[in-house]
Amino acid sequence: MPINAWFLVAMVCSLGGYGAYLVGLRRHLVQPNRASWLIWSAGTAVEAATYRALNPHAVQSWVFLLAAASCIIVTVAIWRRGAWESPSVSETACMAANLAALAIWLAFRETFWAHMMIVAVVPLGFWPTWVSVWQDRTRERSPAWGLWTIADLATLLVATHVSVAGGPARLGEYAYILTELLCHASVWFMIGLATINPLRSLGSWSGRFHVLDAYAPAANLFSIAETHLGKAVYAAAGFAEGAEIVRFTGRRFRADKVPGMLHGARDRFVQITPDHYMGPSGRIDDLINHSCEPNAGLRFDGDTVMLVAIRAIGPGEEISWDYSTTLSGSDWYMVCQCRSPDCRRVIGNFDTLPPERQAWFRVRGLVAPYLRANVPITANERAA
After folding, report:
1. Of 212, 231, 248, which marks where a domain is finished?
2. Residue range 154-188, pLDDT digits in tens
3. How far is 226 from 131, CA to CA, in rounded Å?
4. Cβ–Cβ < 8 Å for 324, 347
5. Is the overall model pTM greater than 0.70, yes or no?
6. Does the residue 186 lie in any domain?
7. Within a domain: 65
8. d(Cα 154, Cα 11) in Å, to the nearest integer?
9. pLDDT digits over 206-243, tens only?
10. In Å, how far are 129, 262, 268, 382 from 86, measured between CA atoms?
11. E strands of 169-269, at which residues?
12. Which domain holds residue 203?
């Protein structure tokens, strides 16, 4: 294939990847790691600049300039869609390494070594996303990762056909392209691990391959409306008893890292172990309200937290669960305004529930594991 054709493939795939990712972001089909994108938006700009300085006449440098601009656009879109969360220790280390590379370039004007340091810390920028995908592959199920991998491969083919000076410039050129290729491909393969098939990230249906299957319109299962409590989630379609409704996702926090004095819409933390909480996801699970007479409950299966229907839920009915079913040893409480006939008025730890109500939740597996561990279920509870 002529060099100009590979260059065109690289440009189209790179731009197409960012376009597909923006579509996924808009439709809540991806859950990007904000730390990674903040690192990439700064790092890609420096990478593009240092690469162009080392290879001033290389046509492939335009691919990196386009990627840098697109990366910044995606980062701004992510920033505008939700509140920023404090970075973890590993995310902070990744950011510090990128800042160090920037400082070397700006302070010493050593373009080659600044570029090589940026190349070395590229995997650090991917680390938060690798962790996020390892926890839940659906967070990054987007055709974008496949398109970026193909773009990197096409860029590598462009570089091998373009005659440039040898020495440091050639080393810096290949090091950056290969590192980007391996990092993008690694996420692509991680997304496809469920079927040992990296093409899964591009979507499939009825055994046939469809590039944009991930974005095929599906029946809308929920609607959002305002109530006296603020936003609430309603069923747009019916759910049978025992049906899975929505998976709860969000970043894990140690109990001592959960912000205090949170109220209202900012209080979106769910206790998942005695010492850990799940933070807000920015998705629909954040908006599901409490009820003392709920129609749904949380079921824990390993690291998966799934909201399931505990009775049949009809279209137009508000979906709710009992917040006390995950709380233990917490000083959190809430004045309840659910307006159900059996409203408890104040919501607190699981042990504040009447014993018969505790048994009702426990026998159905609708409490956090640490609330049912080593507690035998009696025959009377099974009959409840």
Report:
1. 212
2. 888 877 765 444 444 455 567 778 888 899 899 88
3. 35
4. yes
5. no
6. yes
7. yes
8. 9
9. 444 444 334 333 456 888 888 877 888 999 888 999 99
10. 15, 15, 15, 44
11. 204-205, 208-209, 222-227, 230-235, 244-248, 252-254
12. 3-212
Residue 75 makes CB contacts below 8 A (sequence gap 6+) with 37, 38, 40, 41
Most confidently modeled of 62-76, 104-118, 185-199? 62-76
CB atoms within 10 A of CB 163: 6
pLDDT at 381 over 50: no
The verdict on 277 and 200 lying in the same domain is no
244 and 341 belong to one structural domain: yes
**Which tokens in the block code for residue 230?**
């603020």
Q: Beta-strand (E) ranges in the chain?
A: 204-205, 208-209, 222-227, 230-235, 244-248, 252-254, 270-273, 276-278, 289-290, 296-301, 304-309, 320-321, 334-335, 346-347
45 and 167 inside one domain: yes
Q: How many domains does the chain have?
A: 2
- Quick one: 123 exposed, middle or buried, by C-beta within 10 A (0-12, 13-18, 19+)? middle
Q: How far apart are CA 236 and CA 198, in angstroms?
A: 33
- Distance (Å, whole) CA 324 – CA 340: 15
Is residue 217 included in any domain, yes or no? no
Q: Cβ contacts of residue 58 below 8 Å, gap of 6+?
A: 51, 52, 159, 162, 164, 173
pLDDT digits (tens, 9 = 90+) for 7-45: 888 888 888 888 888 887 776 667 787 777 877 777 777
CATH code of 298's domain: 2.170.270.10
How confident is the model over 291-321, as pLDDT tens digits?
A: 999 999 999 988 789 999 999 999 889 999 9
Q: Which of 179, 212, 245 is the last residue of a domain?
A: 212
208 exposure class (CB count in 10 Å sphere: 0-12, 13-18, 19+): exposed
Distances in whole angstroms, Cα of residue 337 to Cα of each of 112, 265, 292: 63, 15, 9
**Mean pLDDT score of the chain:** 76
| Separation of alpha carbons 271 and 330, rounded Å | 9
Residue 291: predicted pLDDT: 95
Is residue 99 situated within a structural domain? yes
